[in-house]
Structures are given as structure tokens and as C-alpha cells.
Amino acid sequence: MSSPIRVLLADDHTLVRRGVRLILDGEPDLTVVAEAGDGAEAVALAGAGEVDLAVLDVAMPRMTGLQAARELSRRLPALRILILTMYDNEQYFFEALRAGACGYVLKSVADRDLVDACRAAMRDEPFIYPGAERALVRSYLDRLHRGDGLPARAITEREEEILKLVAEGHSSKEIGGLLFISAKTVERHRANLLHKLGMRDRLELTRYAIRSGLVEP
């Protein structure tokens, strides 16, 4: 019998992690070997241990699941990644694919879909939650008909990192320390964000970050 699939589980809510762990550990071919409370911790744990599959929540402190997925895809290209989220949102779905995830599972039906999604990921097959395929294909074809293509990223990855930390209340000096850049560089990125997004101040940036799922309200 082959060894169980080793899973890293990342979610900032302890109760959610506990429930998801019960689902996964109840299967003979799946075992949770590490848990993280945010995306940065997930990246560190994946790099330090033997993990086959990362299951990442979208909205987490310090680093979102999508940011963590991008970083893990760069560092550990063989690692399979699933996004677990409460957001039934087409934009997040396409961002998850861009970030290197091979599946997108809604928390509301995790007890039904997550195990199948984990197994599909390890077979290198994409997993889309049931009911989404028709809407996604129709939306994609509509965009192609209009000549729009896939949804574009409004801001760069670095700007997204800074936006999240600004919305979490960090100062420019603190953000610089976390990202290993100068406070002046942080201020320049923040000015670019305000200009790109047509916003005036930190409050509007924070509201945008909440709508984008970078931070929770």
C-alpha cells in the first residue's frame, strides 16, 4: 500500500483547521502533517518539511493564500496546491490558477468536495467545484467575444503585498522591515497604488483590500 498523501493545511481560524483536518485525516490515503495560521508560515513549513499537497485559505494575515501559492509554485514546483475559500468568485478562481493552484474548493461544501479535490490534485488533474464549470465557461466565452480575454491583474504582486500590509495597519517603516525594502520604496509603491486605483487615502485602500479578499472586514 502506498504512503498517505502528506498535506499542509493553512487557515487563520483554528476551528476551520480542526474541521478540515478531521475530514482529511479520516481518509486512509490522506494525512495532515503540518498546520499554518497564515500564508508566510505555510511557505516556511512547506520548505522545511516533506509535503505533497498544500491546502490554502484565501484570506489570511501577513500573506494571503494566493500570495503563498505564487511563492510555493516558484520554490517548490512539484508541490500540488488547492485553494480553500468561502468566496464563490470567478476572479479568485482565475487568480488561483495563475498562482499555480490546481483546484478551488468552497468551504461551504468542503465536507463533500475536499477529499475528491485532494486526490484529483495528486493525479495532476484540475478540480473545479461542481456547478461552477458552466458559469465559468460562459463567462470566459463572453469575454472572448468582447475581445477582453482573461481578467487582468489591476496591480503587481509587490503592490498587492504592500496593499495588504497597509490595510492591516502597518506603517511604512514596518512594511519595509517585513519586505526588506526601504520605507521610501514603500511610500513610492503606496503612491502608485493610489494613482492606479484612483483612490485618495489609506481608508480607501483598506476598503479595496477588503473587497479584494486580501484582508477580512
Structure description:
By secondary structure, the protein is α/β, with parallel strands linked by helices. The chain folds into two domains: 137 residues, Response regulator (Rossmann fold), CATH 3.40.50.2300; 55 residues, Winged helix-like DNA-binding domain superfamily/Winged helix DNA-binding domain (Arc Repressor Mutant, subunit A). Helix 1 links the parallel strand 1 and strand 2. The longest helix is centred in the middle third of the chain and has 15 residues. The radius of gyration is 18 Å and the shape is globular.
Low-confidence stretches: none
| SS-derived structural category | alpha/beta
Shape: globular
Strand residue percentage: 5-15%
Q: List the domain count as a whole number.
A: 2
How many strand units?
Answer: 6
Largest sheet entry? 6 strands, parallel
Query: How would you classify the quaternary structure?
Result: single chain
Provide the CATH architecture of the largest domain: 3-Layer(aba) Sandwich
Distance between the termini: 46 Å
Quick one: CATH class of the largest domain? Alpha Beta
Per CATH, the superfamily of the largest domain is Response regulator
Rg: 18 Å
- SSE order, one letter for each helix or strand: EHEHEHEHEHEHHHHH
For the biggest β-sheet, the strand order reads 2-1-3-4-5-6
Helix count from the secondary structure assignment: 10
CATH-assigned fold name of the largest domain: Rossmann fold
Can you give the helix content as a percent range?
40-55%
Mean pLDDT: 86
